[in-house]
Structures are given as structure tokens and as C-alpha cells.
Design goal:
globular; Rossmann fold
Amino acid sequence: MTGATDGVEYMAGELDRDATFYVAGHRGLVGSAIVRRLQAAGFTHVVGKTSAELDLKNRDEVFAYLAEIRPRYLVLAAAKVGGILANSRYPVDFLSDNLRIQSNVLDAALANEVERVAFLGSSCIYPKFAEQPISENALLTGRLEPTNDAYAIAKIAGILNIQAVRRQYGLPWISAMPTNLYGPNDNFSPEDSHVLPALIRRYDEAARSGAWSVTNWGTGKPRREFLHSDDMADAVLHLLEHYDGPEQVNVGTGSDLTIREIADMIAGIVGFDGDTEWDASKPDGTPQKLLEVSKLAEAGWTSRIPLEDGLSRTVDWYRANVETARV
């Protein structure tokens, strides 16, 4: 497929390794992994700005920056993210901040004729009780999980923004929806993080302190799928070079485990041999979130990092960076 603005035609395919490539959110869990992957693939001009240097919620700043660097490619990995508790407490922030970030970056990318854009969302865009595994066409077919519906609506708006650009301007922009991600540079806050980094921190602290027990939120019964951020980064580059379609693409492993099984795995990796208790007064969230990944496989990509190996690597990174890790 080709697209055009002002008479300039673009086509999906192999990316120019010497072109300017802007990664919005380049210090975060996904963004930092994408930077590593691009550099390993030979890209020579990967750029980014920290939130202190560039406020993506400030429209004038975003437009000025993209006009200055004139990127040929862009990945929008920047977002306000958090776990169940944070999403439940601050829905206005998760909706407003993400809508502004997305609108500013995508509008500025369009104004500067960015050739290829990948918008990254989340599996929470799908209905709470979607048929498992969840296919891409489940979008907008049912009610969302109420603990993170504000964040999900923002991400759905991002998908529609990409589709609108494709319809109106013919640009080969795409959206990728990852399952639950983990890896280096994650947020390890005890209250605001996602489940996996929260478990790593909790069990590691218990192992270090010699605690007799650990208490986790919820019942431990929900099933979750996890993908290492390095796998996600590899998938994003692959999709940019091999996929061109309006529908979002699920990115996952195609397999899941219960939270209890994940907790037991982490306990074993960190060396915690005490008891695990479950606080059922805390929310479980969606009963199961397993992505159907046949579209991704048809595009020629499958995950490579086994969960236990990825968890071991993440625990090693956390322990080596515990003093500076985001909390």
C-alpha cells in the first residue's frame, strides 16, 4: 500500500537505518527496549526526550520538537500507566493525560509528514468478558473492565486516530496492542505498578528480610499472559517493516498462567520459601486476558523469550538497580 501527503508517496517495507527515528517514551519499559532493539538493528539516529525535557501534554512543545527533528519514523510508547489501584484512584488523570499525549504526538507527526508511525496500546482495550483468546475483532463489542476503563478508552481513541489518518491521508501508520509487559526499566512501586513488578519487589524484599509470609492482592485466580519488553520491541520493528493494515495487531505469547502460578515462579527465582497469603478484599480485575496472536504469526513473528528466563533476567536487573528503579 502507498500513501501520500502533498504529493509525496510512502510505502511500508524495510526502514532506512540512517533516518531519524523518534521514540516517544524512550526511557520507559517499552520505549527503552525499542531503543535497544533499533540500535542493535543498525539504526544510527534514534532520538528521544525525557519528560523533564519535553512535556508531551504540552501541544506547542511537541509540535516545536517534531518540527525541529523532522523524524521519518516514530513509535508512540509514551503513556501514563499504572496498576489496578492507580487506575481506580485516578481515572481522570489516566484519561486526560493519555488523550493529550496521543493527540499531540500524532497530530504533530501528521503535520511533519512522518512516514511510519507505530502506536502502542494495551490489551485492556478489549471487553472484560471477551471470548478467550481475545481476537482483534473483539474491540468495542462489550463493556470494559471498570478498574481501568478510562485508560482503555484513551487507548481505543489512539487506535481510531491511526485508522483515521490512514483513511484521510493514506499513510501506512499502524497500531500494536501488547499483552502484559515486563522487563528492565519497569515501575516497581508497591502500590502503583503492574502485577508482575509488584510481585518481584514484594518477594525480593521478603527474601532479603527473612519474612515468614507474603500477602498478595486478590485471589490469585485470574489468568494473565506476559511478554518480555525485549520481545515487544522486536515485534514492533518487525511490524513496522512487514505489516500495513488498519486493524490493531495483538502482540503476545499465546499462553497464560494464573497469578498464583506466576507468584510461585517469582518466589522460587528470588529464593523466598515462606508462605503466600491472598487478600481477597483487593480487586482481581479481568478474569482472563489471553490474546489471540494469529495475525501476528501471519505477519511472520512469534515470541522468543520463555517466561521463566525473562523473569530471571528481570529479577537480576531489579536487584542490580534497586536503588534507582522507578517506584
